[in-house]
Every structure is written in structure tokens, then in C-alpha cells.
Amino acid sequence: MLNLYCVKAVWGRSNVPGKNELIWMLLLDAWWSFFAIFEIAANHGTTQEILNMKLFWIKIEYISISSIAVLWLLFVLRYIGIEPPFLKRNSWVLFIIPAITLLLVCTNEINGGLMYSLPGIITFEDHPLLKIIHHGLYFPIAVGYSWVITAIGIGICFVYSLNTLSSSRMQLRLLFVAAMIPLLSTILYVFEVGCLKYFDLTSLFFAIIGALLTYALLKHRLVELTPIAVNTIFENIQDGVIVLNEKTAVVELNPAARNMFMVSGNEFYGKLLKDILPELPDITLMNTERIFNDQLINNRWYDIRFSSISNGAHYGWILTMRDNTTKRELEEKLHRMAYYDGITGLPNRMSFRDRLQSEMARVVRTHEMLAVMFIDLDNFKEINDTQGHAAGDKMLNHVAERLNEAIRGSDMAARMGGDEFLVLITDMKKKEDVVFSVMRILDAMREPFYINDTTVYTTASIGIAIVPGDGLEADIVLRRADEAMYKAKMNGKNQFMYRS
Questions:
Q1: Are strands 454-456 and 449-451 parallel, antiparallel or unpaired?
Q2: Which residues is 16 bridged to in the sheet?
């Protein structure tokens, strides 16, 4: 009855892989158990009549037993999701031995290949119970095949129960026990251990299987799609997932998390989170979901999310780790492309303008002054044309280095484009404070440049705009510094001039 109840329960479930195989296996289990009752009840009449009747019911029972082991294996393979492609297309191969067994069962009186009986009845208080059966030549093949098929399924359940989620792990362990019980009973019966040489208790153990499967269906959601889906997500998601108990000890981690930490998994089981990730805060103080972005772990950047596991009571946490190293590197690259010059590595015009606008807002509050230098290299076009663009790029790099050396750390040098550069001088009390920096820059530009074993000379023309005197808008100040630079060029180059 329990097996039939399981059939009804499984029938109403979603179209889970292995569902049909499990239903057929349960029906055949119920078939065996049902007709075993008739075999035991056949105890009226003469000895020969009892023998014949019991042999008849045994044949009816064996119609089901030949395929149960194969259906069990197919159910395990499909439920776990590891059925080989060849077997998906050719599962009928597994039923060859059961088909031969069924044929021999139907013709057993003629060939006696599976079993035969000798006169004799096991009695209990003068009531005949079971006949004495002797096994034919084919019997070891049929039974051995069933044992091997069942053992393979048991082994798969055992191995996968060691490396899966706790919910699925319990399902697999129950399936493992459910298959072990009838396997052990048939082994004891076939090898005639003790009183089991006369009693085949398979039908009894099939009833126990029904009880176990009923428990698995009701308690552990066997043959439901949700646990399979959860397990599939857990195993295949690219984010690392670590399950922690209420003491923050690791109880489970998925393959992605193992790869992140380059461990097998067993090395982390039972370890406290603070021993694995000491960079993170104490999560025992958290009772809501928390996210920690840009955590550097093993030279890679992660976004980490903590979620509490609770259902009325608190059971632990789920820690999700998303590797955003590639995203971060791309963002940094895009940021550099947007705000930095690709040749010299200096900030570009946009970056310089943002900094200038920020400093302008500050000097309004502090009543200090700023100076903006617009620098143009004299005769750079001639150097670029004669030495080549590669040599010109090298010279621009040397100019950038000299500019950074000539100014203070609080100041800023940038490349405007071509052979034009910008310098921002901050923290000035009076207009003349800029003279020291501009003279250092002019002297640095007059020094010879060594490009590809060639000595190259240039100078600089510099225009200076003063904030707030020349304006409080970045674009206006830059334009006025540019105008001052042209005045310096028109006045003979290699010098600086103020806008006003």
C-alpha cells in the first residue's frame, strides 16, 4: 500500500527527470509484494497442489522482479542528471537480461533454467508455508546482473551524497538505504544464510522501501523540481556561495567558491568565517542583509552579500561572492581613457578642468589664489617632422616627467593635446608666488633632450592666468591663459607672460 501511495504522490509531481522510472519501479515493487501474499496463502490441498500453486505465484512475482534493478539505476542516473548520452539513446540495452529472465519465467516448467522445486514443505505448527526452491543454471546470471545494476546505483548515490547540498544529500542517502535493504536481503537468501535459505524476505523489504520513500517524499521533497533546481543553481552559478551555520562555521560551498579559494572544499568545512576571510566584519552582529563592495581577496576584487537564513529562528547565513575584478579593471581602463592622456599618462584636459573647477570653489571660500599655466613647446613640429612621430612621443613623455619634477605635489600637470600642456598652481597668497614654479619649468625645458641617441633642444612659451583675477569659470580661465601664451610666443618665445 505504501508503494501505491508513493506512486500516487509521484504522479502528481512536476515532470522531474526520473519520475517515470520511479513510478514503474514502485508499481513493480507493489506487484511483487501483492502476489507474495498469494504465495504465502497457498497452503491448502495436497502437498503437490501446494507446490504447484506456490510455484505459479512465484512466477507471477518474477514478472516484476526482473526489471526493478534496471529501473532503479535509470531513476538514479536521470534524477541526479548524469545519464551518459549513449544510455539516453539506448537504455533498452539494460533490459536485455530482464527480458531473457521474463522469457525463462514464462517457460520455466519446460526448461527449469530459473528455478525448480523438490518435494518438501516448510511447516509451522502443522501449517504448510513455503516450498523448497532450487535455483536453475540461469538464476545466478539474473540475480548477479540485478546485484551489479543495483550496486552501481547505490555507489552513485553514495558518491553524490558526499558532494551536494544538504537537502539533496538526505534524499540520496535515503535512496541509498532503500536500495541497500533489498540487496542485502537477496544476498542473504541466495547464499542461504541461516533460516533465510527457506524464506525470501524481499517482499517484506519492499514494504520497508515503501515506508522510506514515503518519508523521503513527504519530509525531504523527493522527486520535486524545486530541490533539483536549487541544487543545479548552487552547483553551476558563477558566483561563489558559502553556507554558514549560526556560529559562522562553513557547512557548504559550491564549486565556484572552491575555485575562488583554490580548495577542494573539505579544507574549509567547519572553519569559522573569520579564519577564512579576516578582512570582513563580524557578521554575528548583523541581523539583516548586508553588502560589502570591492573587497580585495587573493588579489582579486569581490562584491560580497550576506543573507540571513531564518524561518522564525536564525539558522545561519548565506555568503555570496561575485568576482568583479574584470569589471573593475575595465572601469579603471575606461576612466583612464576618459581622464588621462594615452601618450604621457598625464591627466587630460577634462581631468584638469574638473580639478580647476573644484579648486576655484575652494579659493572663493579661503580667499587664496590659483595660477593656470598654458604651455606650448617651441619648435616641436620641426622635431616631430625630422625625427618622426615615435621620437616626438618620446619627447612628450620626457616633457611630462620634467613638468612633474618642477612642480609641487599639491599642484597638477596635464596635457592639453599636441605639444600643449597645462599646469595648475594652488595655495598662492599673491600673484608673484607663481614665478618660482614657472622659472623652474622654463629652466627644465631648456635642458637638452636625448631621443634615440640624438640630442634635441626645445624651449617653452608659457601664458599665465590668475584666479580669481582672470575669472571664476574654468573655460574662461583656460582661454585667457591660452591668450597669454600666444602673447609670449609673439614676444619671442622661451618666456612667460600674464594675461593681465
A1: antiparallel
A2: none
Better-scored residue on pLDDT, 324 or 168 = 324
- At the second CATH level, the architecture of 2-229 is Up-down Bundle (1.20)
d(CA 303, CA 462): 47
What's the pTM value of the predicted model, to 2 decimals?
Answer: 0.48
Amino acid present at 290: R
Judge whether 237 and 214 are in contact, CB under 8 Å. no
What CATH code is assigned to 237-327? 3.30.450.20
What kind of architecture, by CATH, is found in domain 340-498? 2-Layer Sandwich (3.30)
Selected residue with higher pLDDT from 445 and 172: 445
DSSP type of residue 313: S
Low-confidence winner among 197-206, 349-358, 422-431 (lowest mean pLDDT): 197-206
Q: How buried is residue 477: exposed, middle or buried, by Cβ count under 10 Å (0-12/13-18/19+)?
A: buried
Cβ atoms of 322 and 302 within 8 Å: the answer is yes
Contact status, residue 174 vs residue 216, Cβ threshold 8 Å: yes
Domain residues of the chain, as ranges? 2-229, 237-327, 340-498
Residues 6+ apart with CB under 8 A from 347: 339, 340, 341, 355, 412, 413, 414, 415
CA 305 to CA 455: how far, in whole Å? 58
Q: Is the pLDDT higher at 56 or at 203?
A: 56
Tell me: pLDDT of 341 over 60: yes
Of 87-96, 109-118, 368-377, the one with minimum mean pLDDT is 109-118
Cis peptide before 468 (omega within 30 of 0): yes
Backbone angles phi, psi at 65, to 5 degrees: -65, -25
Q: What does the alpha-carbon distance between residue 11 and residue 6 come to, in Å, rounded to a whole number?
A: 8
